[in-house]
Design a protein that fits this description.
With about 325 residues, this protein is α+β, with helices and mostly antiparallel strands. It has 2 domains: about 230 residues, Rossmann fold (3-Layer(aba) Sandwich), CATH 3.40.50.300; about 80 residues, Nucleic acid-binding proteins (OB fold (Dihydrolipoamide Acetyltransferase, E2P), Beta Barrel). It has a 6-stranded mixed beta sheet with strand order 6-7-8-3-9-10, sandwiched between helices. A 5-stranded antiparallel beta sheet has the order 13-17-14-15-16, with no helix packed on it. A hairpin with a 2-residue loop joins β9 and β10. The radius of gyration is 24 Å and the shape is globular. The two termini are about 25 Å apart. It comes from Miniphocaeibacter halophilus. This is ABC transporter ATP-binding protein. Keywords: ATP-binding, Nucleotide-binding.
Length: about 325
C-alpha cells in the first residue's frame, strides 16, 4: 500500500474533527475526498501534508512513517485553493522556488521549471508577473510549482473552486492528463460531485469526520451504502415501506403519454436544455422527480403512465 492512514485523530479542544480515520491508497491512484463543507476532508489533507499536528495515529507513505516530519521533509506537495504564489516573483521564479531547498544548481532548476511550464501549457510565460495572469493561469503556475520538486504524493485542496464553470471543466481535464502522464499519486479535495465523478479513480465520501462511502463513481451512485450517500450523490426519490427505505433515481423512471393505464399526474415541469425535469404524483400519493430527455414533452396537469423499480439502500 503506497499511502496508509492509520487511526488518525485530530481535535481542537473538545471539538473532534477526525476520530480513528483510516484510509489506504494505491500508487498512481487519483483519489477524490468528497463531502460537504465541514466534513473534515481538508483536515485530512492538512494532516497528510504536515501543516497541522495530529492527536493520534500514523501516516505511512511509501513504507516510511512521515507522521512527525516537517512538511518539507515529507516528499508531499500541496496545491492550495488560494494558490499561495509570490506576487513579487515572475512565473519561472515561482515555479523553481522549491528547488533551492534541494541543492539543485540554478541552471538545472531553470531547465526543470521550463519543462514543467510546457507540461502545464504555460510556455512563453517565464517572465510574466503573477498579477498579469488570469485565475486559470495562476492555478497552472501553482500546479507546476508543486510538480517540479517531483513529489511522491500530490495534494490538491479545492484547486478549482475560484474559477468559472467552463474553466473548471478545462482544468480538471488537464489535472487528469498530467496525473496520468507523470504517473502521479494524487488526492483531490472537492465538494463538487461532478468534479469528483469526472476525474477520480476512486471517491472517498466523507461525513462528520468519517468515511461514509467509498468506491468508483459508479459504485457510490448506483449502490449507495447509506441514506447520506443517497441524499448527497445525485438526486433520488426515497420511498419508505414497512420501515424500510427504498429509492429510485429520476432518470430510471419511464414516463409515457396518457393511456387507459394512466397512474400519475404532472405537477411541475422544469426545462433545462437537454433534459426536462418533472415532478409527478402517482395514485399512491408518492411525489416523484422524473428526468427525461427533451424529446418527451408533457404539460402540467397531464395524466401519464409511469413505471419504475425500487432499490433497497445497501
Amino acid at each position: 500500500m503506497f499511502l496508509k492512514i492509520d487511526n488518525l485523530k485530530k481535535s481542537y479542544g473538545k471539538n473532534t474533527i477526525l476520530e480513528d480515520f483510516n484510509l489506504e491508497i494505491n500508487k498512481k491512484e487519483l483519489i477524490c475526498l468528497l463531502g460537504p463543507s465541514g466534513c473534515g476532508k481538508t483536515t485530512v489533507l492538512n494532516c497528510i501534508g504536515g501543516f497541522i499536528k495530529i492527536n493520534g495515529g500514523n501516516i505511512i507513505l511509501d513504507n516510511k512513517n512521515i507522521t512527525n516530519l516537517f512538511p518539507e521533509d515529507r516528499e508531499v506537495s500541496t496545491v492550495f485553493q488560494s494558490y499561495g504564489l509570490f506576487p513579487h516573483m515572475t512565473v519561472i521564479e515561482n515555479i523553481k522556488y522549491g528547488l533551492k531547498f534541494k541543492n539543485i544548481a540554478k541552471k538545472q532548476a531553470s531547465s526543470m521549471a521550463i519543462k514543467m511550464m510546457e507540461l502545464v501549457k504555460l510556455h512563453g510565460y517565464e517572465n510574466k508577473k503573477i498579477n498579469e495572469l488570469s485565475g486559470g493561469e495562476k492555478q497552472r503556475v501553482a500546479l507546476a510549482r508543486s510538480l517540479v520538486v517531483e513529489p511522491k504524493l500530490l495534494l490538491l485542496d479545492e484547486p478549482l473552486s475560484n474559477l468559472d464553470a467552463l474553466l473548471r471543466v478545462e482544468l480538471r481535464s488537464e489535472i487528469k492528463r498530467i496525473h496520468d502522464e507523470l504517473s502521479l499519486t494524487t488526492i483531490f479535495v472537492t465538494h463538487d460531485q461532478e468534479e469528483a465523478f469526472s476525474i477520480a479513480d476512486r471517491i472517498i465520501l466523507m461525513d462528520k469526520g468519517k468515511i461514509a462511502d467509498m468506491g468508483t463513481a459508479e459504485d457510490i451512485y448506483f449502490k449507495p451504502n447509506n441514506l447520506f450517500t443517497l441524499n448527497f450523490i445525485g438526486t433520488s426519490n426515497i420511498i419508505e415501506k414497512n420501515g424500510t427505505n427504498y429509492y429510485t433515481r429520476p432518470e430510471k423512471i419511464t414516463i409515457e403519454k396518457p393511456t387507459d393505464k394512466s397512474n400519475a399526474i404532472i405537477l411541475e415541469k422544469y426545462f433545462t436544455g437537454q433534459i426536462i425535469n418533472y415532478k409527478v404524483k402517482d395514485k399512491k400519493g408518492n411525489l416523484l422527480k422524473v428526468t427525461t430527455l427533451n424529446n418527451k414533452d408533457f404539460k402540467i396537469g397531464d395524466n401519464v403512465y409511469i413505471d419504475y423499480n425500487l432499490n433497497i439502500i445497501n
